[in-house]
Amino acid sequence: MLCAAVFVLGVAMSPWAAHAAEGKDAKPAAEGADKKPESDLPALPADKTVKQSVRVGGRTVSYEATVGTIPVRNAKGKKIADVVYTSYVAPGNDPHRPVTFAFNGGPGASSVYLNMGAIGPKRIQFGVDGDAPSDAAVTKDNPNTWLDMSDLVFIDPVGTGFSRSLEDEDQSKKDFYATEADIKYLSRVVYDWLVKHGRLRAPKYVMGESYGGYRAPRIAYELQTRMGVGVNGLVMVSPYLDPAAIGDGDALSPLPWMINLPSMTAAHLESQGRLTPSAMEDVEKYVRTQFVTDFLAGRSDPGAIGRMVQKVSAYTGLDPAVVARLDGRVDIATYLREVHRNEKKIGSVYDSNVTAFDPFPGSAERQSGDPILEALLAPTTSAMVDFVTREVGWKTDAHYEALSYAVNKAWDRGDADDKPVADLRKAIGNDPNMKVLIVHGYNDLSCPFFTSQLIIDQMPTFGQTQRVKLAVYPGGHMFYSRPGSAESFKADAASLYGTKR
Length: 501
Hints:
signal, alpha/beta, globular, two-stranded antiparallel sheet, hydrolase, protease, Rossmann fold, 37% helix
């Protein structure tokens, strides 16, 4: 699900990794969990399926829920990992029924967030103001599940959920905790699931949230060109698409600052009840024009910084004195603290209007974790484990890793920062029938929507205006936690899938 301002979780997730690296998030108990060879552990259970149903749009949709495993093998055929998936499949094995493969991000996030927060048949509340770790881990039918228009397969990468490596720590890093290896083995998992369940003739969709949004276009291209599997459509949720553009530490480039300002402005407008697409047009035009000119002029134009301070203060609602001290360059960490300072609260990087009390309000620097991230871990983990072990009956003594900081810390980023956009272009160029839906929440500062807007604006015109759509909804990184945004998201997805509603 998550996407970090530096590198992300997919929580659904990101910036949690950036904050953890700075020592600002609580250290999870799972740190270093990968040091014991997984092969010493008992075998995972056999696949288990139960029949369930959900009410969607006034009708009952029956389905089979399965928790199962896909083995990962090396070039010599030796099994080196177990990848655990959760699938929801309509009975009948209709070869024309779409199947959607969903990945969260991190790296280090399981797929529980898209599963039980966004499109699965059951959901648990998380990601909005007032949520708490002690909230009951009780799921309800999801009125906005996509199960009425597609079968759903949620895949937990190695080191997340119950998925595990069977190799030692060093080899696991090479085979699973690296950008390029990740794309290759997960693409093979998708292929193997399709073969295992006889679904190669089905329309296929790949969905990714946060760092999963980094994965999605790359997996689609890998499936096209290496696995021999065509992909009908991509859905990227709060995607981490351009690592070079995210962040606010490069004082010489206006790009990170101009990307972050619209999301700060959206949060301010929402707090005043004035957030609309038309209300956002002014700031989006400003960051493309006068902001860039004044930023690059700097001290060479005596009026440039003053103009920036005036405009940025008005857009964000921050005290002009604070903005002036920053020369009009408001970084994310400062914004999240200052915008709620009078209440002695802190905002979430995933949705800056979701807050928690600051346990150290007098400290010069923030010393606590993210309000959304730390509130969602307990209820989502408990709900997922209860579903898997009690409802489905897939019994295991292993711990469910909803968010693995150990995986995130071990990750080898490599030099593939430009690959998701490049692979997206190539995948679309290869297949004139492929469609893409990129979706964001206005208030997300971990993976701001304006990054995707700029990327789309720079894409070639080979039909992308008809085939690549950007939609932005009220909310943050996990905008789907808001019923209205979840409903709008499904409506846009139905258009992508060609489904009548």
